[in-house]
Amino acid sequence: MPLDDSRYAGRVTTPSSTRDRLLDAFEAILIEQGEKAATLDAVAARAGVSKGGLLYHFGSKDALVDGQLARLGELATADVERIRTAPAGAVDYLIRTSVNAGTPLDRAIIAAACLAQGAHPSANEAIGAMRQQWLAVIEEAVGDPDVAEAILLVSDGLYYNSALENPMPSAGFDPRSAESTQQMDRLLAVIAKLLK
To answer: Which residues does UniProt assign to DNA binding (predicted)?
Structure first.
């Protein structure tokens, strides 16, 4: 079954607001170089704005972190709605999209994970809240909390491995390829056994 391309729609670049450009720059530096490199000066330079322009939108690095985590929350909430309304079903959608494809949600998750490794407990909370949303929608779909947790752990494992092997989608793994689709079909057949 082909992958729902709506999740990959975020790959198309469009003109964005200064605030979004600043968050994009912060996210990119976090992913590429780590939190220590994500200084206000570096973020402003990457976004092509003055430091004063950055401070107009985000008064401090903590405010920038809060903005990034709010972005993650918004993207996760939208993802939960896509999971809930997926034509092939919630489990199918979750598993097929549990790979790092470089989407805005993927980038926000990886950036939050970078922040969680530092002195930002709010990043851990944001990631936890996202997982709880996913768990709730899967439990709603399968009707069993233990099976829902097992499915979410499979999703976590798929994502973790794809993020490690392929931090940037251009490195070779295409989640929409026929081979990947066949692998996902086999995995979903195994998961279907849990649902019986």
So the answer is: 39-58
